Amino acid sequence: MSSIKNGKMAQAARIYYERIQFHLFVPEGTEWDFMREFANAFRHTITGAKRSVDNYSQATDGWHITLTVKSDEKEKFYDFCKNFFLARKIGIQK
Known about the structure:
Elements: E1 4-5, E2 8-9, E3 19-27, H1 31-41, E4 55-58, E5 62-70, H2 74-87
Antiparallel strand pairs: 1-2, 3-5, 4-5
């Protein structure tokens, strides 16, 4: 936060970028490839993160994956998903 000293701002707050969190369901057998390829494609977004996805857990017939991308890379993420799943002949719902 900024403070005012002698009528002038001492510091300024900045918002560098926004992030969007996505929750996905991926079919069994695609989870590890998806997470690995996501990490490679969005390496600059996740720099400094402890892992490439925020969370993942097994479901009945697949995996739930939670991940975060920069808001200005939303379309890039949609294209990544489309290409990843179409290459495996898996439909995608948005």
